[in-house]
Recover the amino acids of this structure.
């Protein structure tokens, strides 16, 4: 079963990769590694939620936002795997190496790891053991567009 099929079983759709809003690209491949740009919880061009966790954004909503950001990062990986007219294939991912999650944190909030874990569990569901990764969960004073979370991935591909 492919990662996309596993995501579909969870009721999740892989979006199209977001277009950059600055002088950067969604992902860069160097050798067998793909590095994504930071992804925020956008869906269909709309930011799903804004604010600080947990004062403006409840923990469960922040976890859902992190899942959307992870789906966006996977879409960027898939785009980086495209070859001409041939679409990318997440089945070419051999290992999720690293995930960094930044949480727009209210003062005193220390639950960044719980917010990040929603995306970690998604990667395990999509890729099995190849989705087990290293991770940083970091509290941030502010994030772009007042997003509650931003994350990036490093994956190994064949």
């Amino acid at each position: 079963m492919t990662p996309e099929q596993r995501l579909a079983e969870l009721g999740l759709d892989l979006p199209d990769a977001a277009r950059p809003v600055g002088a950067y690209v969604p992902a860069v491949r160097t050798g067998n590694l793909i590095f994504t740009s930071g992804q925020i919880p956008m869906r269909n061009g709309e930011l799903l939620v804004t604010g600080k966790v947990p004062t403006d954004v409840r923990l469960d909503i922040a976890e859902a936002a992190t899942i959307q950001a992870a789906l966006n990062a996977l879409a960027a990986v898939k785009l980086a795997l495209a070859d001409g007219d041939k679409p990318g294939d997440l089945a070419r991912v051999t290992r999720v190496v690293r995930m960094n999650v930044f949480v727009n944190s209210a003062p005193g909030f220390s639950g960044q790891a719980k917010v990040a874990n929603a995306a970690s569990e998604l990667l395990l569901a999509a890729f099995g053991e190849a989705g087990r990764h290293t991770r940083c969960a970091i509290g941030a004073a502010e994030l772009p567009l007042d997003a509650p979370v931003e994350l990036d991935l490093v994956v190994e591909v064949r």
In short: The CA atoms of residues 95 and 130 lie 5 Å apart. Residues 3-15+42-157 form a domain with the 60s Ribosomal Protein L30; Chain: A; fold (CATH 3.30.1330.40). The first helix runs from residue 3 to 9. The first strand starts at residue 27 and ends at 30.
